[in-house]
Amino acid sequence: MDLVIRNARLPQSPENPPVDIGIENGKIVAIEDNITVDAPHYDAHDHLVCAGLVETHIHLDKTRIIDRCPPEDGRNANAVPRVAAVKHTFTESDVYQRASQTLENCIKFGTMRMRTHVELDGGVEMRSFNALEKLKRDYAWAIDIELCVFPQEGLTNNPRSDELLVEALKRGAQVIGAAPNYDPDKSGQIRRIFELARAYEVDIDMHLDSGNSPDDMDIHLVCDLTKQYGMQGRVAVGHGCKYATLPPRDLTDLAAKIADAGVAVTVLPATDLYMMGRHQTHSVQRGVANANVLVENGVNCSISSNNILNPFTPMGDGNLIRMANLQANVTQIGEAHRLRECFYMLTSRSAELMNLTDYGIAVGNPADIVVFDATTPEQAVAELRTPLTCFKRGIRTVTRPRAELHKP
Description:
The protein is an alpha/beta fold. It folds into 2 domains: 3-51 and 359-399, Urease, subunit C, domain 1 (Roll); 53-353, TIM Barrel (Alpha-Beta Barrel). It is built from 13 helices and 16 strands. Helix 2 crosses helix 3 (127-138) and helix 5 packs parallel to helix 6 (219-228).
């Protein structure tokens, strides 16, 4: 063996005695008690050891542009037009430089799989896509990246976006998305995206149902088309702010429909908190869908970052554990088993959403491993615990020394 990680507590059963994980040629080859082999080792000292975190929804192409965008107009965030106003400044080198900064932060916080959404329209053409293709290659030593292409500023009214989507799909984009809220023909955009997904045999991941009331939700059409096209398990939607406006019975009924269609939901607490409720000046509604309730009613959910340091979310550091902690705070999740579920929404549930068949601490899987400064998943979420070290295919990629007190 090339490496043994000793005394590891696994996230599905951290109450069990720790185990050793044997690694060879970049893969896990053994999970046993007291592996006896003459090989280098890392002692996890009974800490939580999991597969790399999975970021299912982030926008690397428009990260770190808050300083160049026009300011907010009172309580009207105007995020889409503020970003659109500066897209002409996006060069390939600019996108690469900004995206790499955010990506490196994500890696330092334990993310090893990622789906980044990429805007395609006449304002940016293929520049962001080209930059992120290069980023994907250059950082393969630390993270696996999927590109999800989508039209942020409309599709049915924007033939250039349609042409660019087709070009990106022909070049190997693995996922296609949508943003129907910004299209005069919402259902037309959604239907066209399903047509393209079938034509190019790719998965779907849409921005869906942002808003401050339950009116005019698009999830019903998406569920119907998912079943019609036989794409159960291959469709995800992000945001779902409108689900937070439903009374409990209506939410469980909706969850049953989403689960039956095999559609997954990604909740984006930082952005949704920042963007929703802006029509109110006090007692502002949160606008964050309760992922735990959805999961408890059969829906697969993930928690992700979405935007970082731009008009949609002027804060952020790429720390997925922080997103899970924020989600739990906002939706008032405190029970240990539900906090543990939030951790799974960064790991195994996110992997399921992305159809990653080689994910997890299991023999035969890639040795993509994070050691957390915690003993249980719920402690990691509740106390914002960070990684101590990370290994990508068995090679160490991150080391975070623990803080030390120097007592007098």
